[in-house]
Amino acid sequence: MYAYNDFDEAFVRTRVAQFRGQVERRIDGSLTEDEFKPLRLMNGLYLQLHAYMLRVAVPYGTLNPAQMRQLAYIADRWDKGYGHFTTRQNIQYNWPKLDDVPDMLEALADVEMHALQTSGNTIRNVTADHFAGASADEIEDPRPVAELLRQWSTDHPEFQFLPRKFKIAVSGAKHDRAVTKAHDIGVRMVHNDAGEAGYEIIVGGGLGRTPMVGKVLRAFLPREELLAYCEAIVSVYNLLGRRDNKYKARIKITVHENGLEKMQELVEARFAEIRKGFTGFDQELLQQIERAFAAPAFVSKSTASFEAARLANPAFRSWADTNLAAHKAPGYAIVSISIKKHGQTPGDATSDQMRVMADLAEKYGHSELRISHEQNVILPHVHQADLPAVYAALRAADLATANIGLVSDIIACPGMDYCALATARSIPVAQEIATRFDELKIEHEIGELKIKISGCINACGHHHVGHIGILGLDRAGVENYQITLGGDGTETTTIGTRAGPGFSADDIVPAIERLVTGYLDLRQDAGETFLQAYRRLGMEPFKAILYPAEDKANAA
Amino acid sequence: MPRNFTPKVITANALIAGDAVWFTADNTWSPRISEAELITDEAHADLRLLEAQAHQHEIAGAYLADAKEGANGPEPTHFREAFRTRGPSNYAHGKQVEL
Ligand code: SF4
C-alpha cells in the first residue's frame, strides 16, 4: 500500500491546522456561514438534515487494518459508533459536532487519511476496481495509476474551481467493476494490437439528472502519457464547461453539446501544448508508487480444510458460493463481506464490525481491505485454507450474510433519512425489500440481480445502472418511487428505462416482489439472469407484471 | 392574483450540533417545532427571516418552511420537515430519542 512521504504528511497536517482555525473563526463569529461553507466543503464537511456529515476519502477504496481501526475509533469517540460506506468507496459519519471535526481530521491524519476533495467542484476521490491486485481477470493493478492521479489532482492549482465536481475511475481488468463509463473520466487498461499495455480513455459518462454513458475519447493512450492527457481533458473542460447553469455544468453536457469530435480536437491540441511540460518525473513517481503496491507474498498450502468445510457445513458452502470471487494466485480467494444483512442499512458497519474486519485482514488477509462501490467490504487476499476461520469470525460479528450480487445486496444512498438534497427516503425501501425476499427464501433461486436505489435525481445510489433501479421522488408532498429496468454498470453500461408511473411508499415493495417473482416465470431457465431475460423480452412483459390493473383497463 | 400565503415557521441547523432548530417568538432557537413562532403574514415572514439570519453565531442556513397550527403548537406539513422533527427512520437516533 502507498505510504505517505514527508510532503503528504506535512500537507495533510497543514490543512487540518488551517481548518481548525476556520472552525474557530466560524464559532467565534468572525466567519459567516456563507463564508465558511466553501471552506468546510473543501474538507468534506456537509450540513445535512439532522446534523453535520463528514465524508472521509478512502482513496481507490483501499484501507489497511490500522486505518480501519481508526475509523472505528472515530465512530466511537465522536460519532454514534458506526460509519456508512458509500458508492464512491468513501466512509461517511452522520453525527459529528462542528467543534469536534478538527480533532476527527487530526485522528485521520494519524493514519494517513483525510477528507480533502470529497466535496466541492474539484477532482474527487479517485475510485478503482475493488478487486484490484487480486482478481483473476486483471491486466494490471489499477491502484498505482489511481494514486498517481490522486497526487496530481490533490490541490491542483488549476482545478480547484471547476465548473462542477469531477470524478475519475480506473479499472485494470477486462471486467469493469469500477463503473468507468459512468464517470467524468474513465481509465481502462487495455492492450493494443502490438500487445502493449495502455489506457482506453472514456469521457463524459455520468448519472444524475441527465444520465449518459461515457464515450471513448482515445482508444489507446500509451501509459506514460496518462497525466498529461488527463490534464488536457480537465483543462479543456475547465474553459469550455458551462458555469451559467449548474445542471449543464458536468463534462457529460460539455461533450454532448460540443460533440465528441470537437472535444477530441481540443483535447489533442491542448495535450500537444502541455505534454512537453511532463518531463518524466511523473513516471519516476509512478515507479515508486508501483513498488508500494507490490503484490503480497502469497503462500501455498493445502486447501483440504476448505473443501472439507464446504462439504460439512451447508451455510459455509452457501456463503462461499455467493461471496467469494476468483483470485489470480493459486489457492487464494477474494472475500466480499456483505454489509447488507437483511433488514440492515446498506453500507453501515458498526465500530465493532470494523475492528473484526481489521483483525481478519491482519490475520488472514495480508493486511488489506477494500471498500466496494457496492457498499461492501472486501478482503482481497485470503487463502482458501483460512476461509473457515474467516467465516466463523464473520458469523460471530453478524457479517456472514451470503447475498453478494443477489436481490438483497442493494445499493442505497442515504436518502431523506440524512441527505438534505433528498426528495424521498431510500434506506427503508432497501430494508423492506431485503427483509421481504429473506422471508420468501428465494434469493438464491433468483440469482444475480442488482437493485439500486437513489433518494433523488442526483443518483448517488446509481439507480440508472441497476438491473432494477428505484428513484425516490416527491410527488405533491408524498414519497413516490419510480422504477427503471435494464440498467447495467459494467463494461456493457446501459442506462435503465423507466417502466411507467411511480409507486407509493406502501406499494413499492409489493411492486418489486411482483416484478421479481414474475421474472421467475418468464425466464428460459435458471441460468438466465433478470437482466438477460429483460434484454431478450424487452419492457412489455415486465410492464404487464408491474401494472396489472392498467393491463385490464386497456383490454376492456 | 397573488397566491395565498401558507403559514410558515423559520427553521435552521444549530451551529455546533447541526440539529434542526426553530425560531421562537422571543428570538430564541428551540429544538421543538411546537415552540416555534407560526407566521401567517408574508411581510412579517420576510422580516423575521432577516432577524433569524442575523443569529449567525447560533445557527446555519435559516429558511422558511410550511407549517400548520396543531393541538400543541405548530406542526410540519411536508414529510421532509416532519423527518427533521424526529430524526432518521433506520435508527433510534436524533430528536425521537433525545427530546
Ligand atoms: S441521490 Fe440524492 S438523496 Fe441520495 S445521497 Fe445523493 S443527493 Fe442525497
Automatic annotation (TrEMBL), chain A:
Keywords: 4Fe-4S, Heme, Iron, Iron-sulfur, Metal-binding, Oxidoreductase
Pfam families per the UniProt record, alphabetical: NIR_SIR (PF01077), NIR_SIR_ferr (PF03460)
Start and end residues of each Nitrite/Sulfite reductase ferredoxin-like domain: 52-110, 346-397
Gene Ontology molecular function: any one: oxidoreductase activity
Domain Nitrite/sulphite reductase 4Fe-4S: 119-272, 409-544
InterPro entries per the UniProt record, alphabetical: NIR_SIR_4Fe-4S (IPR051329), NiRdtase/SiRdtase_haem-b_fer (IPR005117), Nit/Sulf_reduc_fer-like_dom_sf (IPR036136), NO2/SO3_Rdtase_4Fe4S_dom (IPR006067), NO2/SO3_Rdtase_4Fe4S_sf (IPR045854)
PANTHER family: BLR3264 PROTEIN, FERREDOXIN--NITRITE REDUCTASE, CHLOROPLASTIC
Protein name as it appears in the record: Sulfite reductase (NADPH) hemoprotein beta-component
Native species: Yoonia tamlensis
TrEMBL record, chain B:
Region annotation (Disordered) ranges: 68-99
Organism domain of life: Bacteria
InterPro entries in UniProt: DUF2849
Descriptive protein name: Sulfite reductase (NADPH) hemoprotein beta-component
